[in-house]
Design brief:
The complex is a heterodimer. Chain A is mainly α. In chain A, 79% of the residues lie in helices and 0% in strands. Chain A starts with a helix and ends with a helix. Classes of the chains: A mainly alpha, B alpha/beta.
Chain lengths: 127, 569
């Protein structure tokens, strides 16, 4: 067992599950989507990205790309939500929440791709 | 550049993770711990303010508590966060700085910069492998003649010398082993602008490898190789290395030549040197018996060359196993062996050991015994030039310099290289006469030497004239385009016609398309000759003295003038 692989797999899966948890629920209902969960998703996703740095294999490059896509979506979601809450004061309106959740949904797709790649790589491993 | 980026990201993984976690913990704590607004109502910090606060807290610890003064519980948490983020920042910044100083990283950066510089070269260039004694002469000499080079050298100290040399052009250089194919490719071996490779390292095996790699990756490339053993030379010849130069043999050949046919030796220096330098005065070594000190690799080659030239000699060698028969055994730095070799009855001494200090010492000792000696010493290390100058010897032979004499014309003017090869077989009188001619036309300055090819590209006026059936002689080229009665101050050295080479061709020789000519002459002649080579109008003037008018109206007037007499008659 390789501890590095454990941590790597843990963060990639955690990024996906947290993301899923945040997206789950009515898309326009602010009560179903908590900012703490978005925060946790963003942090875990960033950690997963940094863990993928410097891997020169082709698989490593694609994994890094999916992670960067997820980060981009989540940061956009966080910025939109923060701006709506503090600047325009529309943070709890259904429209804003829908935008945030759909952005996070995009990130979920990227995280799904990333996890699928990880599983494919593991299955191909003959040890 | 890609490699550098990957290396950077890989090394920055740990510090980035630490920073990320420190931020996440601090922000998470600030968001969770309850606070109070101005009115004492319970209030929780939002992510925007938490992120803002942590960002400036870690880097500056300033700005105060926002948006409301903190409660004791919040302050307790912030105290912890301050230490956490400050340590995380210090760690990350320290890592970045140590990464910048890291050997692997800086090598990757300089390699990436080297590749970028090589890609940016827009003129034909040569790859020079090895910046040792010969390389450090060759590269600046090429740079002064406007030839771009790319240098690969293993020793970083020597490369620093290249940077400090202050050459007139930017020479990309890489600190690496040139015998690794990857580095040769990085130096632009595959680029079409790459004209050749000079394998000039101290290591025969490395030179062989460089030659093989170059010939395999780009067969038409010109490869000039240095080989110090016969095995290495024949190995190189087996896969068509274009030019193989043995520095010991070249040196010995020139040594013997310098004593027997000094003008032939000087001719090399004169024709290869940059134009406009003062000419060295002619030398006249005496006839008689010579004493040669040292019978190493150089000494043996010198001995053989002396025998070929028929110079009588006695050898002094300290190692009895290596010494040839009839030689004196002992150290030539002592008066004893010198006396035994008959130094008092000799006309000259050749101090040819592989140690500069010993060579100087030998000459000084011999000079004390016989002040009339013609003193020749071998200089190995270029840093000793000042000392050898101060010793006021009759002749100092630098091995690296004669090697460069061979390489330089091969790169700049291959025709000159052909000329010198033939000249080396000729006698003192011929060379002496040529030198005195050069001396006359160049007013005791070194000439410039250039090649002219009669073809569409280099001399289209001549080419067109010849194709039209005109007869043009070498003399026509040598006429001054400003005044056709005057000749340019130059001498045709060589005429190459379909591989047939004629030394010092007769100026009346008619030219043919495809001829290659080598000229030597006073500085500036090359540029003047271009007028005749490239302009049909100037060619007509030097041929016939008629100046053809240029513009449309003038041409019309001239045709009117030319046709009127025929109308009248």
């Amino acid at each position: 067992m390789n501890l590095e692989k454990v941590i790597f797999g843990f963060f990639i899966l955690l990024a996906m599950t947290l993301n899923f948890g945040f997206v789950l629920g009515d898309i326009e209902n602010p009560a179903h989507h908590h900012p703490y969960e978005l925060f946790a998703t963003l942090v875990v996703s960033l950690v997963a990205t940094v863990l993928k740095f410097g891997d020169r294999s082709h698989m490593g490059a694609v994994l890094l790309a999916t992670s960067l896509v997820a980060d981009l979506h989540l940061i956009a979601a966080a910025v939109v939500w923060g701006y709506a809450t503090h600047v325009t004061g529309t943070g709890h309106e259904p429209g804003t929440v829908a935008i945030v959740v759909s952005l996070a949904g995009g990130a979920l797709l990227a995280n799904l791709a990333s996890t699928t790649l990880l599983i494919i790589e593991t299955v191909n491993l003959r040890r | 550049m890609e490699q550098v980026l990957f290396l950077f990201l890989r090394r920055m993984r740990a510090p980035l993770l630490v920073l990320l976690l420190a931020f996440a913990i601090s922000i998470g704590g600030l968001v969770l711990i309850p606070g109070q607004d101005f009115d004492g109502n319970p209030w929780k910090m939002d992510f925007l303010h938490a992120f803002y606060f942590v960002s400036f807290m870690g880097s500056t610890i300033g700005f105060g508590e926002i948006p409301y003064p903190f409660t004791p519980a919040q302050r307790l948490w912030v105290t912890f966060c301050i230490f956490l983020t400050v340590i995380a920042w210090l760690y990350a910044i320290g890592k970045i700085i140590s990464l910048m100083q890291d050997q692997t990283f800086s090598r990757a950066v300089s390699e990436a910069r080297f590749i970028y510089k090589v890609r940016a070269i827009q003129s034909p260039f040569y790859i020079v492998c090895g910046y040792g004694e010969a390389g450090s002469l060759l590269v600046p000499a090429l740079a002064r003649r406007g030839v771009q080079t790319v240098v690969i050298e293993k020793n970083p100290d020597r490369l620093n010398e290249l940077v400090m040399a202050g050459l007139p052009m930017d020479i990309p250089s890489l600190c690496a082993d040139a015998s690794i194919p990857k580095h040769l490719v990085e130096a632009g071996l595959r680029r079409s602008l790459c004209r050749g490779v000079v394998a000039n390292t101290d290591d025969n095996a490395a030179n062989v490898k460089i030659a093989v790699v170059s010939k395999l990756l780009r067969p038409p490339l010109r490869v000039i190789c240095r080989a110090t053993t016969r095995e290495a030379a024949s190995n190189m010849a087996s896969f068509n290395t274009d030019y193989i130069i043995n520095p010991y043999e070249v040196f010995a050949e020139h040594m013997a030549m310098a004593l027997r046919r000094p003008s032939v030796h000087q001719l090399h220096a004169i024709l290869i040197s940059l134009a406009g330098r003062p000419l060295v005065p002619p030398v006249h070594p005496p006839e008689g018996k010579w004493v040669i000190c040292g019978y190493g690799r150089f000494g043996r080659a010198v001995h053989a060359a002396f025998e070929r030239e028929g110079l009588p000699m006695t050898v002094i060698e300290s190692d009895p196993e290596h010494a040839p028969p009839d030689s004196v055994i002992g150290s030539a730095t002592d008066p004893g062996p010198l006396e035994a070799a008959g130094i008092r009855g000799s006309v000259g001494i050749v101090a040819g050991t592989d140690c500069d200090a010993d060579n100087l010492s030998i000459v000084m000792t011999a000079r004390a015994l016989n002040p009339d000696l013609y003193q020749v010493a071998r200089q190995d290390w270029r840093g000793d030039t000042e000392v050898f100058k101060a010793a006021k010897l009759d002749l100092v032979m630098e091995a690296s310099r004669v090697t460069v004499w061979r390489m330089l014309p091969l790169i700049t003017t291959p025709l000159l290289s052909n000329f010198l090869r033939t000249a080396r077989t000729l006698d003192e009188d011929w060379a002496g006469k040529l030198i005195s001619n050069i001396r006359k036309i160049c007013h005791d300055r070194t000439p410039e030497t250039w090649a002219v090819r009669i073809d569409e590209e280099d001399a289209h006026a001549i080419n067109d004239g010849l194709l039209a059936g005109k007869q043009i002689t070498i003399q026509t080229l040598m006429r001054d385009a400003r005044d056709r009665d005057r000749l340019l101050r130059c001498i045709p050295l060589l005429l190459d016609r379909d591989g047939q080479q004629e030394l010092l061709p007769d100026p009346e020789t008619p030219l043919k398309v495809g001829d290659k000519l080598l000229f030597t002459g006073a500085e500036g002649c090359e540029r003047r000759m271009d007028w005749v080579l490239l302009s049909a109008k100037e060619l007509e003037y030097v041929e016939s003295g008629i100046e053809r008018p240029d513009g449309l109206i003038w041409r019309w007037l001239a045709s009117l003038y030319a046709t009127r007499p025929t109308l009248k008659s």
